[in-house]
Design a protein that fits this description.
kinase activity; HD_domain; 48% helix; Hypothetical protein af1432; EC 2.7.6.5; 5 domains
């Protein structure tokens, strides 16, 4: 454990202007507050915050961060208060300690509500000042180093899983690769003890069998580069055990099939020498196609810069090589933290990095705990590709991202307005996955809205959260529209006319926010007709029996302008199309389900509120289902598809359900404009010699 004078000396080495008295006061304060508290290892508890402060000095962080590290557990684990800390150490330190205290409350991920709320606080605290995250990462790293002292295996595994799921990816996102690798290794040891033992054992065996092969290869690389006149440092190591494990899992191979378990790092004086070194290595040994990445010209979103390549060395041995300048290496290993040593003034620009803005937007857009956790994990895990706007702006996205993900990465409003896309000048479907270097042009429309179907292929948390938010808003508006029409009908059955005043009092009695909230509650079936009537005119239902059936008026409710799948759903059992006589089933907290009036589901006496509905005047488009019995001979299906095409019907599904010589029975789903359109198609099919029978089902 660092002694008081040792900690102060460390800070004064890189920050001579630091307030020595304030640092000493913070050290003494944490020792006094934690007093006789012990850690699982048996060490005094205050040894932990002191060690965390020591990690912060290795990153050369400012004195406020060092003091925050010393005090970060005092509010949670002692009688210290934020007010007391502010009085003794100033408002900035108090704000940072408060932020880290909130982060300390992130617990087991399966307890979704609590985990999501604490994660929300985590991200918001980070947005204020990323030093909060740096202290928390150091706190977690030291806790992982002492994790083996905890006796309960279940608790060790919970902490390790939390580290692997949240803290290691966040360390990567701010470029702190040393922290990320050590956290992953320590968590891997707890979560997969057999895998950890096997891989570390095999690596130890390779080292003993092959002696100094890593040093030998590093010397060969250095000699080749020195002969080319390059002043470089070369170091080599076996790959990280967790990295090997992950590669084995992803490729479904065993340890012996992993050929590139050694990695080498080349440090140069400047950027020109990086590219010169790359050329020399590619001329000296065969490079492996598809494994070269240039993160110098296109850095990762966390600022990481390096050239990556893979070579086939002697005896068909594959190795990875990273080439970077010495300055890049310093920034790469400790990422965002490395910039703090050079920061001037008290500004906090690091809280505004783009990926963090995306996370905050996800916090605002997420509807519930599961959604927040899902979208946030999508945002912090990454394997990136690079794509460009037509004007040359570069965007980094996870592998597998589509044009829709790109549109939302540029701006949420662009994603919401997207109707089409050109990739490298060619029109392609919106679900097209992007490749490295693609130029993406989003075509937008002022009348466009996000589609529910996009959730089936987008991969970024930002896109998913924005689409869900837009669809939810539209669903609410459409359900409220249905509720408004039901409200007019309910109000018409009251013994007296109701006005705005009665409506206002009803909203208050029902403890709702506003008129839209009332209409949504009616449309979604959360309020019964009796409840609404009683709220509007108290006592109006007093003499009616509790099981009184309310008779609807003859006027049907138009669903014109509503979107299938949002405000209502067309029933799969009967596939109603515009022109059919329809009825709606309304259940609490479900979309209105629209059935044809002769649907057998209705005949079974379903338990739901029935609504008499009608199609709007300009309603067009639905999916109808037909059963076709075709003669089993060559060319039959071709003739049927020709009939459908000539009648401008799009086939969305075709399935053979039965085969009896000489017939085949098929079910086909068709996109049609209305009942008349579907009827014409059935008539055309029945007139064909290829069709034995055609009927709607």
């Amino acid at each position: 454990m660092l002694r008081q004078y040792e900690l102060v000396e460390r800070v004064k080495e890189y920050a001579p202007e630091a307030d020595e008295a304030l640092l000493n006061r913070a050290y003494v304060y944490t020792v006094q507050k934690h007093g006789t508290q012990k850690r699982a290892s048996g060490d005094p508890y205050f040894s932990h915050p002191v060690e965390v402060a020591g990690l912060m000095t290795e990153l050369k962080l400012d004195q406020q961060t060092i003091i925050t590290a010393l005090l970060h557990d005092t509010v949670e684990d002692t009688l210290a208060t934020i007010d007391e800390i502010e009085k003794l150490f100033g408002p900035d330190v108090a704000r940072l300690v408060d932020g880290v205290t909130k982060l300390s409350k992130i617990e087991v991920m399966t307890e979704s509500e609590r985990a999501a709320e604490n994660l929300r606080k985590f991200l918001l605290a980070m947005s204020e000042d990323l030093r909060v995250l740096l202290v928390k990462l150091a706190d977690r790293l030291h806790n992982m180093r002492t994790l083996h002292y905890i006796k309960k295996e279940e608790k060790r595994r919970r902490i390790a899983r939390e580290t692997m799921d949240i803290y290691a990816p966040l360390a990567e996102r701010v470029g702190m690769y040393e922290y990320m690798r050590e956290m992953q290794l320590l968590a891997f040891e707890q979560l997969e003890p057999e895998g950890y033992a096997t891989i570390t054992g095999r690596l130890a065996q390779i080292r003993s069998e092959e002696g100094g092969q890593v040093d030998e290869l590093a010397l060969s690389i250095k000699q080749v580069l020195a002969e080319a006149g390059l002043n470089v440092e070369v170091s080599g190591r076996e790959k990280h055990p967790y990295s090997i494990w992950r590669k084995m899992a992803e490729r479904h191979v065993n340890f012996e099939q992993i050929t590139d378990i050694m990695a080498f790092r080349v440090l140069t004086d400047n950027v020109d020498d990086c590219y010169r070194a790359l050329g020399v290595l590619h001329q000296s040994w065969q490079m492996i196609p598809g494994r070269f990445k240039d993160y110098i010209s296109t850095p990762k979103s966390n600022g990481y810069q390096s050239l990556h390549t893979a070579l086939i060395f002697q005896r068909s041995m594959r190795i990875e090589v990273q080439i970077r300048t010495r300055e890049m290496h310093r920034l790469n290993e400790f990422g965002l933290a490395a910039h703090w040593a050079y920061k001037q003034g008290g500004s906090r620009p690091d809280g505004q990095v783009g990926w963090l803005r995306d996370l905050i937007e996800i916090v605002d857009a997420s509807h519930d705990a599961e959604e927040l956790l899902e979208n946030t994990k999508m945002a912090i895990y990454q394997d990136r590709i690079f794509a460009f706007t037509p004007k040359g702006a570069l965007f980094q996205l996870p592998k597998g991202s589509t044009a829709v993900d790109f549109a939302y990465a540029v701006h949420t409003n662009l994603g919401n307005a997207a109707v089409g896309v050109k990739i490298n000048g060619r029109h392609v479907p919106m679900r097209t996955q992007l490749a490295n270097g693609d130029v993406v042009e989003i075509i937008k429309s002022t009348t466009s809205e996000p589609q529910l179907s996009w959730l089936g292929f987008v991969v970024t948390g930002k896109a998913r959260a924005a689409i869900r938010r837009a669809v939810r808003a539209k669903e609410r508006a459409e359900v409220a529209e249905i509720g408004s029409k039901l409200y007019d009908e309910i109000a018409g059955r009251l013994p007296q006319k109701v006005g705005k005043k009665a409506l206002t009092h009803a909203i208050e009695r029902l403890d709702l926010r506003d008129e839209e909230d009332l209409m949504f509650a009616i449309g979604s079936g959360r309020l019964s007709d009796r409840q609404v009537m009683e709220a509007l005119v108290p006592g109006s239902t007093a003499e009616l029996p509790d099981d009184q059936e309310w008779t609807r008026t003859e006027r049907a409710i138009s669903i014109r302008g509503l979107t299938a799948g949002v405000g209502f759903e067309l029933a799969e059992c009967c596939h109603p199309v515009p022109g059919d006589r329809i009825v709606g089933l309304r259940r609490p907290d479900h979309k209105v389900e629209v059935h044809a009036i002769d649907c057998m589901t209705l005949a079974s006496g379903v338990d739901a509120d029935w609504l008499d509905l009608s199609w709007g005047e300009r309603t067009t488009g639905a999916v109808g289902r037909l059963r076709l019995i075709l003669y089993n001979r060559p060319g039959t299906l071709a003739e049927v598809t020709q009939i459908l095409a000539s009648n401008r019907a799009n086939v969305t599904n075709l399935q053979m359900t039965q085969r009896d010589e000489p017939f085949g029975t098929y079910e086909v789903d068709l996109e049609v404009s209305d009942l008349a359109h579907l009827t014409r198609i059935v008539g055309a099919l029945r007139a064909s010699d290829a069709v034995a029978d055609a009927e709607r089902i």
